[in-house]
Write a sequence for this structure.
């Protein structure tokens, strides 16, 4: 069995918010989560907006400094690395963002964008990276002669390919894809997902895929983590999760994926209300205010994440009845 490339242990990211004169509160964006990602695996984190999935990605990259917990990458705790060690580690962990336009400097050509990324990580010699960059463009489905174009001269899907090329340019081991295809049309989404799969095989990459859409991650994930209000509700092998869900929230998320058969419309679970404010999360199970299965105990008991079957764990006191 492949070894862990990434291990996240009891990760917390709390944001301080001013709630009045001399009054502060905490938003527990990520609240004590643990999971691991094996070498060559694709693990997806899904959940509605505000569930903490993107904050988890940013905390792993240390773009948002974690409040507590350990982030072990290849056995080294990223939280205790010196500045120079962290710069080196960042070469191995790259991020692809939702909005490629916002993450690419509009005044730099594709060559300048990739050359800069490689120079920062001291990859290749100054003045000798052009051929490698041309190769990279071909690898991600762009054309060599596009090397001197600016980001606005590309379509949305092509810009995301530039983002992928930039990530690949420093020869990473892990790529965190934060809503990497959410802004794209469905047909382009499929092309980019296929490209990511091909690149994974070619370069032995490991992916942490962050998405609000279970449908998008279905075909690329080995395992799926479902988050709600900063906590993990379910972790499961992807196949097992689509076969049988072990948490009412996963069930509701899955039922909301659009399908064309009319019968599926009847099975749709419409969740009541909005996600509660993370400033004052509900007592007990964080999902109890919207859960169609909630009982009185759910208001008081914080369910632990426990195995329901091999490779599937759920944080629900009624996990065997879901
Ligand atoms: Fe629903 Fe209760 Fe399970 Fe939470 S613990 S998911 S509220 S049944």
């Amino acid at each position: 069995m492949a070894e862990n490339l990434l291990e996240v242990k009891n990760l917390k990211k709390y944001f301080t918010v001013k709630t009045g004169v001399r009054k502060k509160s905490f938003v527990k964006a990520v609240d004590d989560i643990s999971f691991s990602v094996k070498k060559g695996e694709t693990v997806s984190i899904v959940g509605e907006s505000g569930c903490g999935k993107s904050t988890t990605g940013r905390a792993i990259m240390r773009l948002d400094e974690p409040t507590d917990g350990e982030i072990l990458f290849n056995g080294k705790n990223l939280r205790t690395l010196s500045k120079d060690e962290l710069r080196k580690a960042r070469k191995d962990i790259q991020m692809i963002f939702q909005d490629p336009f916002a993450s690419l400097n509009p005044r730099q050509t594709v060559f300048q964008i990739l050359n800069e990324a490689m120079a920062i990580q001291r990859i290749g010699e100054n003045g000798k990276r052009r051929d490698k960059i041309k190769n990279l463009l071909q690898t991600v489905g762009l054309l060599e002669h596009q090397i001197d174009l600016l980001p606005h001269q590309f379509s949305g899907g092509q810009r995301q390919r530039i983002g992928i090329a930039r990530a690949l340019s420093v020869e990473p081991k892990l790529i965190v894809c934060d809503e990497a295809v959410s802004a794209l049309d469905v047909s382009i989404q499929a092309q980019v997902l296929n490209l990511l799969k091909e690149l994974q095989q070619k370069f032995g990459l490991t992916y942490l895929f962050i998405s609000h859409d279970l449908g998008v991650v279905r075909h690329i994930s080995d395992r799926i983590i479902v988050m709600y209000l900063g906590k993990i509700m379910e972790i499961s092998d992807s196949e097992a999760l689509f076969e049988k869900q072990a948490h009412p929230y996963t069930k509701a998320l899955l039922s909301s994926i659009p399908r064309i058969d009319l019968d599926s419309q009847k099975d749709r679970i419409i969740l009541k209300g909005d996600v509660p404010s993370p400033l004052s999360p509900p007592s007990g199970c964080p999902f109890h205010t919207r859960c169609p299965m909630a009982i009185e105990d759910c208001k008081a008991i914080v369910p632990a994440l426990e195995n329901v079957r091999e490779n599937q764990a759920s944080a629900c006191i009624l996990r065997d009845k879901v």
